[in-house]
Design a protein that fits this description.
alpha+beta, Elongation Factor Tu (Ef-tu), domain 3, Threonyl-tRNA Synthetase, Chain A, domain 2
Length: 239
């Protein structure tokens, strides 16, 4: 199990760690990591690990099959380190911060479209959510853009807390996603709240987010697409 520093402080840009192992595919496992592993539509982080005199460029970060061990995937051709070696992590902060802004913006989008979410994807400058809704006419790009930017301008704080797995199971309405289930199995689930007591949005999420909606910046709903009989895809980007 990797200590998930990215989950406790998404703003960490560097940190020391120790190499625990190198797996059979050449992935580097650390005892603690600031790198977010690909999950829930958010891409895995990139950056670098400095171990001794060698700097490893990390091409992506993923979970191992246990969903608790973080694998840092170096670029091809690197001579891999030995377990026990000291490592310094450096995050590609510009890319990560863009993911944090888009991810938080998608929570805002979710809050103003009251339908179940069937899928989503986060990029460094844009993102999208798919909704289980049959009436495309119920969604208007200009109106959604105006609502999103009003929430951004509202300077709403974003916070996290933890509840027990059993508590989430007793409150299924907290889960908006139909296909991506919240990370469970450790006995507790992380909730992301936007606004006082989550009055704007409150749902389980393991991703990284900004601290205040004002940090997101201006947004635009760029496209609304029909993806099946009852599936509508809403795309957003930085304006």
């Amino acid at each position: 199990m990797t200590e998930a520093l990215y989950r406790e402080d998404a703003y960490l840009q560097s940190a020391d760690a120790s190499v625990v192992a190198v797996n059979n595919r050449g992935g580097i496992v650390l005892d603690r990591s600031i790198f977010y592993p690909q999950s829930g539509g958010q891409p895995g982080d990139t950056g670098a690990l400095t171990i001794g005199d060698t700097t490893y460029q990390i091409a992506t970060t993923v979970y191992d099959s246990d969903r608790q061990t973080v694998i840092h995937v170096p670029a091809d051709g690197a001579v891999l380190p030995e377990p026990g070696a000291a490592a310094n992590q450096q995050l590609d902060w510009g890319r990560r911060h863009a993911h944090m802004r888009i991810h938080t913006a998608l929570h805002l989008l979710c809050s103003i479209i009251p339908f179940p979410v069937t899928g989503g994807q986060i990029g460094a400058g844009d993102g999208r959510l798919d909704f289980d809704i049959s009436d495309a006419g119920a969604l208007d790009k200009e109106a959604l853009t105006e609502q999103l930017n009003a929430l951004v301008d509202g300077n709403h704080s974003i916070s996290s807390s933890w509840i027990a797995d059993a508590e989430l199971e007793a409150n299924p309405d907290l889960v908006r996603t139909m296909t991506v289930k919240p990370p469970m199995g450790t006995g507790k689930v992380r909730l992301i709240a936007i606004g006082e007591a989550g009055h704007i949005d409150l749902q389980p999420c393991g991703g990284t987010h900004v601290k205040n909606t004002s940090e997101i910046g201006r947004l635009a709903v760029t496209k609304i697409e029909k993806k099946g009989k009852q599936n509508r895809r809403v795309r957003i980007s930085f304006a």
